[in-house]
């Protein structure tokens, strides 16, 4: 029995070690390459940190393309997250707490919208953006991002609202609170982990998105950071060191959010599982 338990522990940690290598090595390699020059990358093939320099990062912070892309991505990510949270809260509250005809049908439509691949919708959404004169604009990209972040947030928050005791809102209403007051002061504090996890997932989706930004915003003034990284690659040259420096800097906000919010994400996704 003891040998079987020891064998299981060894197997488990070996499996975790293998997974860790696959997860950590690309990050390590990206950071290592970001400190090397183009000539060093081709003359000295090594996985170890050699010829360490900071030229790529200096070039990045002196690049108008990088700074503009960083500013646009931060603006789009923050605003999209805040607006998506508001709409997701209202939608999830309506689909779980309120009682009206067609509520379940609307819930199923929300799930279908959440499950629809974004790659299937970028052509009609690009056409709509052009029709309503939203192409080449920050607000147009935000509106498109909301079309798939709101269903995601609603789908996750529905589970949290379903886990709440239905009498909580009724008791608050009996005590004289309005629906908005009951939602703000009673229900939302109870689903705080869910709000944090939805916020982080929404920001990550908006921050990393490339396809819609590449197709809809072709003007350099409204490009996001992923598009700025993509445009570093020219027809006759691929500046790997500079691309890795851009990518390393672009990964910092998301890594920061997941590092400090991982407890809320795990707790939120576990307690937000939708009940059948």
TrEMBL record:
The keyword Transmembrane applies. It is a multi-pass membrane protein. This is Unannotated protein. Residues 70-261 form the ABC transmembrane type-1 domain. The keyword Cell membrane applies. Keywords: Cell membrane, Membrane, Transmembrane, Transmembrane helix, Transport. Its main location: membrane.
């Amino acid at each position: 029995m003891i040998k079987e338990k020891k064998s299981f522990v060894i197997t488990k940690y070996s499996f975790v070690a293998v997974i860790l290598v696959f997860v950590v090595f690309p990050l390590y390699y990206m950071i290592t390459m970001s400190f090397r020059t183009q000539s060093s990358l081709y003359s000295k093939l090594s996985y170890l940190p050699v010829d360490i320099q900071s030229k790529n990062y200096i070039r990045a912070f002196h690049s108008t393309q990088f700074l503009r892309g960083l500013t646009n991505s931060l603006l789009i990510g923050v605003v999209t997250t805040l607006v998506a949270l508001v709409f997701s809260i209202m939608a999830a509250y309506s689909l779980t707490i309120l009682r009206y005809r067609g509520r379940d049908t609307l819930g199923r439509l929300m799930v279908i919208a959440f499950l629809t691949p974004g790659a299937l919708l970028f052509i009609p959404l690009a056409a709509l953006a052009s029709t309503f004169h939203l192409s080449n604009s920050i607000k147009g990209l935000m509106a498109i991002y909301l079309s798939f972040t709101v269903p995601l947030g609603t789908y996750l928050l529905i589970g949290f609202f379903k886990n709440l005791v239905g009498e909580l809102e009724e008791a608050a209403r009996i005590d004289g609170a309005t629906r908005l007051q009951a939602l703000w002061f009673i229900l939302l504090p109870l689903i705080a982990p869910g709000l944090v996890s939805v916020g982080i997932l929404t920001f990550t989706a908006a921050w990393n998105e490339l396809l819609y930004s590449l197709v809809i915003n072709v003007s350099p003034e409204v490009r996001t950071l992923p598009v700025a990284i993509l445009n570093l690659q020219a027809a006759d040259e691929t500046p790997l060191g500079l691309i890795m420096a851009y990518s390393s800097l672009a990964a910092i906000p998301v890594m920061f959010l997941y590092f400090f919010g991982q407890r809320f994400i795990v707790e939120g996704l576990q307690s937000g599982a939708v009940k059948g």
